Amino acid sequence: MSTATGVAAALSGSPPARTSLSLFSVANRVALVTGGHRGIGLEMALALAEAGAIVYCLDLPTEPDADWVKVQNYVAALPATEQNLKGRLEYVTGNVTDQKAMFAHVESIVEREGRIDICMANAGILHACDCLDYSAEDFRKVHEVNVSGVLYTAQAAGRQMERLGTPGSIVLTASISGHITNPTQHLLAYNTSKSAVLQMARSLACELAPKGIRVNSISPGYIVSEMTRGGFSEPGLKQQLSAQNPMGRFGRTDELRGAVLWLASDASTFCTGTDVKVDGGQCAW
Ligand SMILES: NC(=O)c1ccc[n+]([C@@H]2O[C@H](COP(=O)([O-])OP(=O)(O)OC[C@H]3O[C@@H](n4cnc5c(N)ncnc54)[C@H](O)[C@@H]3O)[C@@H](O)[C@H]2O)c1
To answer: Within a domain: residue 228?
Structure first.
């Protein structure tokens, strides 16, 4: 059977077949999404599950809330497809700042499912403070979750992918705040941490490419979530921040789904060490 795809398949005389959309399938692959209890993480988890993956959402609450369970049930009730996609959502209580525990969480996912293919290191926190007043403790806390936690997550998945010889995909959630300084916002620790995430993705990508593991990052712009509802709650601020991108609005979490599936799946097999901005054009200004 010919393994040619795309134009090579068309020229090889293979029977005509639609293969381009199926590149985005992650059927029967196993994924970890940190910060997967709500917001961007839960949207990533649903996108992956719809595309056929078994997704473990790791987050701080000891039990998932009613909304998370509703999304889990929604996935369970998805209609069958011709490709027999069988997505599933699972919940794991965990803290990304605990390196040993993160290693153990991914080991136990592999024990249960036999594999780990996709890792979305997405958990993060936002904290605002004037730069000259930043306490050592507050600065450390942001970096512990947004930088160390992202590393421990990527390590936990990467170690298992290496052990099992899996051509895995690791995606780190960075931010436009790693590329620019958000005008009018005093987010020194957050901005610094997200720049570190961008560089971490490049460094991991270069070291892990010979092992067949890809690492990329996604940089969302302003997205409606609990983080931005809490962090930008001042009256009129949302309008002011919306005007900072050419599209003049905040994005929705579901508008990240295309980038998530592209990076997680075989649609991006020659892509590593890169960052995908989903920001309404904010960094283009
Ligand atoms: N919302 C935005 O506008 C925006 C923009 C750019 C980047 N981001 C990034 O996207 C990611 C998700 O953001 P969101 O908007 O969904 O925020 P959110 O606050 O709604 O969700 C973050 C999730 O991470 C979890 N979390 C926090 N600390 C954790 C820890 N130590 N261990 C495990 N889980 C932990 C939280 O419990 C929460 O469920 C973050 O990394 C954030 O920095 C968000």
So the answer is: yes
Q: Does ligand 1 come within 6 angstroms of the Cβ of 25?
A: no
CA of 267 to the centre of ligand 1 (A): 26
Residue 283 CB–ligand 1 contact under 6 Å: no
- Strands, E, within the chain: which ranges? 30-34, 54-59, 88-93, 118-121, 169-173, 214-220, 275-278
CATH code where residue 232 lies: 3.40.50.720
Q: Which residues are catalytic?
A: 190, 194
- Tens-digit pLDDT profile for residues 193-231: 999 999 999 999 999 999 999 999 999 999 999 999 988
Task: Among 40, 190, 254, name the best residue to mutate to test ligand 1's pocket (greatest count of ligand atoms within 8 A of Cβ).
Answer: 40
- Atom number, ligand 1, closest to the C-alpha of residue 250: 3
Which pLDDT value is given to residue 1?
46
Q: Is 142 in the pocket of ligand 1 (CB under 6 A)?
A: no
Structure tokens at 109: 């996912």
**7 domain-assigned:** no
> Rounded to an integer, what distance in angstroms lies between the CA atom of residue 6 and that of residue 267?
12
Residue pointed to by tokens 């803290």: 95
What is the extent of the structural domain holding 185? 24-279
**Planar angle of CA 237, 242, 244, nearest 5 degrees:** 105
In a domain, 13, yes or no: no
Which pLDDT band holds residue 82 (cuts at 50, 70, 90)?
low
Of 63, 93, 227, 254, the one to substitute when testing ligand 1's pocket (max ligand atoms within 8 A of C-beta) is 227
66 is a domain residue: yes
Number of domains, the chain: 1
